[in-house]
Amino acid sequence: MEFEAVIGLEIHVELNCATKMFCDCPNRPGDEPNVNTCPTCLWLPGAMPRFSQEALEKASLLCLGLGAELQPRSAFDQKVYYYPDLPKGYQLSQAHLPLSRGGAIDVVDEGGNPKTIRIHHIHMEEDVAKLVHEMEGRLSISLVDFNRAGVPLVEIVTEPDFRAPHEAMEFLKALRTQVRSVGSSECSMENGTMRVDANISIRPRGTTQMNTKVEVKNMNSIRHVADAIAYEISRQSAAVQAGETVILHTRLWDTDKKVTLPMRAKFEGPCVPDPAVPVIELSRDWIEKMRARLPEMPAAMAERFVTQHGLTGEEAMLLSSDPEVAGYFEALVGQGIAPRTATHWLTTQLIPAVRDRWQELSSSPVTPVRFAALLKMLSQDEINANAAREVLVQLFDSDETPEAIVSARGFGQVSDPNALDSLIDEVLGAQPAAVADVRSGRGKAMGFLIGQVMQASGGKANPKVIRELLAKKLGAIS
Ligand SMILES: [Zn+2]
After folding, report:
1. ∠124-130-132 over CA atoms, to 5°?
2. Residue among 382, 381, 380, 406 nearest 393 (CA)
3. Mean pLDDT per 10-residue section of the chain, whose length is 478 residues
4. 63, 129, 206, 359: which could form a disulfide with 149 (CB 3.0–4.6 Å)?
5. How far does residue 89's CA lie from ligand 1's centre (Å)?
């Protein structure tokens, strides 16, 4: 029997607010353990939560950025369970009246077809404390760090629209880009600011039934989410083939063994309305004010790059997926650089060079103005591409302008036919076999000869002029 998978995702995103969700403690979970705490986020009896306006705004921007409908009325519930990382016995979460409903993200499936993944709702909740397991002598102990207790989170719950691991990966990448664009979170699975649980069930292909699902947690990269889903699909398929019944439970992804393993069941109690945090009422005006604060979202930006700058869809997607790269690209175009040239040099030369040393474009010494000056010299044939690459390397370590570097180091391109003539004759004299090949119509030899002349010129010759001169001398069609 052939099976298909039905997959839904639940994604926790940590908001990058200055403070926690219900107190003024700093939102810095990575600090020295238990320094960012107060009676409210130690959850001591009698401490009153005060809901953060910044958390509401960042969560609302995130919802609007994903095309979700902010609800005029939402409220916090107490999600009741006890665990050492939640000693007050309940987590403040929006179980009945979430902040938003609806929304969607478009992905491309494995076959290259567009597909829309619907979002069911997005709700806010506080994070729980963090357990740290250690050995003290021969005793294994568990420590509790409350720095993370009360950190503002949103949870994005999708419809079970995914059918393959690939779609989940595409969705998470697009989600990360969009949330970064609105500025609500850095959304990094590696750093724990984005955590993904996957609900997976299988059914015979072609049927529409919804079977018992298994929840998988503990993946710490987008790649691992796909690996865990793929593993779980084959595990469940094999189990059903063998006549076993899939039971509702939670499994943990083991990164080293690349398997999912069952985890101990957690007691989950009821969700009851919280009496201390007021109901959140959003006016139409307030929602529109938030909407006006949204930046241009990546999908809209990509579309504009295609129509306004003539980029291919793929180039436009690549640039718009990172707000910083998109801004740099537009700055280059603003300096009069042709969009295709800007895209090519930005993605193949500048970004790879910056990634290792500076990580971010904005911290590299090659500003858009300096890079544009270099590309202008290239497009006006004052230097060739080889020289441009070398000047770029020097721009990283020098404050000089590209123009100064070119004239000081003699990178200027030789385009004067008279100056190139004798070089070409020398090369032709030394390469009789390649000359014969070009004369008999073998085009590859032409590229070889151009390379030889280029080398003889110390990399300074204009390849276009070399090609023209060679074609004239050899009577070949260039
Ligand atoms: Zn606190």
Report:
1. 165
2. 406
3. 94 98 97 97 94 98 97 97 92 97 94 94 97 94 97 98 96 94 93 96 92 93 96 95 92 94 81 95 98 93 95 91 91 96 94 84 91 94 88 91 88 82 89 88 85 86 87 70
4. 129
5. 17
Measured in Å, residue 91 CA sits from the centre of ligand 1 at 15
Of the CA atoms within 13 Å of residue 349, those in its CB half-sphere come to 21
Rg (CA), the chain: 30
Residues with CB under 5 A from ligand 1 (ion): 23, 25, 38, 40-41
Measured in Å, residue 126 CA sits from the centre of ligand 1 at 12
Residue labelled with tokens 């044939």: 381
- C-alpha 54 – ligand 1 centre gap (Å): 15
**Among 343, 276, 265, which residue's Cα sits nearest to residue 81?**
265
Q: H or E stretch including 68? A: none
Residues with Cβ < 8 Å from 167, sequence gap 6 or more?
7, 107, 109, 110, 115, 117
> Is the torsion defined by CA of 268, 272, 276, 278 positive or negative?
positive
CA 94 to centroid of ligand 1, rounded, Å: 20
β-bridge mates for residue 253, sequence order = 260
CA 28 – ligand 1 centroid, Å? 11
- Report pLDDT for 266: 67
Closest CA to 48 of 114, 92, 94, 111: 92
Between the CA of 279 and the centroid of ligand 1 the distance, in Å, is: 21
3 φ/ψ angles, rounded to the nearest 5 degrees: -110, 155
**Predicted local confidence at residue 476, as pLDDT:** 53
How far, in Å, from the CA of 420 to the mean position of ligand 1? Answer: 74
DSSP 320-379: HTSHHHHHHHHHHHHTT--HHHHHHHIIIIIHHHHHHHTSSGGGSS--HHHHHHHHHHHH
Tokens 């604060």 -> residue = 293
Calculate how far, in angstroms, residue 32's C-alpha sits from the geometric centre of ligand 1: 15
Whether residue 105 contacts residue 174, with contact meaning beta carbons closer than 8 Å, is answered with yes
Whole-number Å distance, alpha carbon 42 to ligand 1 midpoint, is 7
Alpha carbon of 23 to ligand 1 centroid (Å): 5
Angle at 71 between CA 322 and CA 193, to 5 degrees: 35
DSSP state of 147: G
- Quote the ligand 1 centre to 147 CA distance (angstroms): 8
For residue 143, the CA-to-ligand 1 centroid distance in Å is 19
Distance in Å, CA 197 to ligand 1 centroid = 27
